[in-house]
Amino acid sequence: MEPILYETHMHTPLCKHASGRPEEYAAVAHKRGLKGITVTCHNPVDNGWATRYRMGLGEFDKYVVMVEHAQEMWAHKIDVRLGLESDYYPGAEAWLTKLHQRADFHYILGSVHSLLPDYKNLYFTGDVVAYQRLHFEHLARAAESGLFDSLAHPDLIKIMEPGQWRPELIWDDVQRSLDRIAATGIAMELNTSGLNKPLAEFHPARPLLAEMHRRDIPVVVGADAHAPERVAANFEEALDVLKDVGYRHVNIFLERQRHQIDIDAARQSLK
Questions:
Q1: Phi, psi at residue 33, to the nearest 5°?
Q2: CA-CA distance, 210 to 233, in Å (whole number)?
Q3: What does CATH list as the number for 6-269?
Q4: Which pLDDT tens digit goes with each residue over 122-165?
Q5: Distances from the Cα of 268 to the Cαs of 181, 205, 230, 258, in angstroms?
Q6: CA separation for the pair 252, 149 (Å, rounded)
Q7: How far apart are CA 107 and CA 85, in angstroms?
Q8: 3-class secondary structure, 50
Q9: d(Cα 30, Cα 78) in Å, to the nearest integer?
């Protein structure tokens, strides 16, 4: 079967916590039967925000060249696209608007990384449940900013204090957040990396996926690969869960435009 699916969430060593160059990720994608990859390393900042976890501002051009090199190496075999994972928090809008115009991005993934020390210093008051609510408030604001094509790992907050993750306590807030997100038309990500974290479940977990589907929120699948061997990790299970909750299509973004792929066809195309 012809390749049709992309890995939509992967990183580079520039973020300081990933290994392997884009061409190595492309090689694994080729073996897995993917049509392409979109490189989405963590965005640079102009204000010192969590710089230990992202490329430096002066490395942005190097990032673009790194992706272009992989494009040239894998031409006619794997489609390599330039993307970005950009951190959202209130006040970041002006910088991200400028940053997203600096290159011809195919996909902008918005993230609320409420686990970061810089984030917690600003917003965490010691009340874990209130902080969980705030995460979903900021997720809705990220969607409403219009800056992003999709929202990454929507329930990432659950791993900050996994023993205190009781979604039923904030379910009304989650529902309101999803209502606001659905109104914007943005996509949301099923991120398979959650299987390797304390709660060992997808980001987001099945109940939230079902609520996304009920609101017709488009879904994108990504492994959040920080090493080449993680490319397309657990994609089969992810597609099966999506189909089970009612989804019939998964999505990719090219030139900032969303394209639907039949889930059954995507599942059959994997190696």
A1: 85, 20
A2: 22
A3: 3.20.20.140
A4: 999 999 999 999 999 999 999 999 999 999 999 999 999 999 99
A5: 31, 24, 19, 21
A6: 10
A7: 9
A8: coil
A9: 6
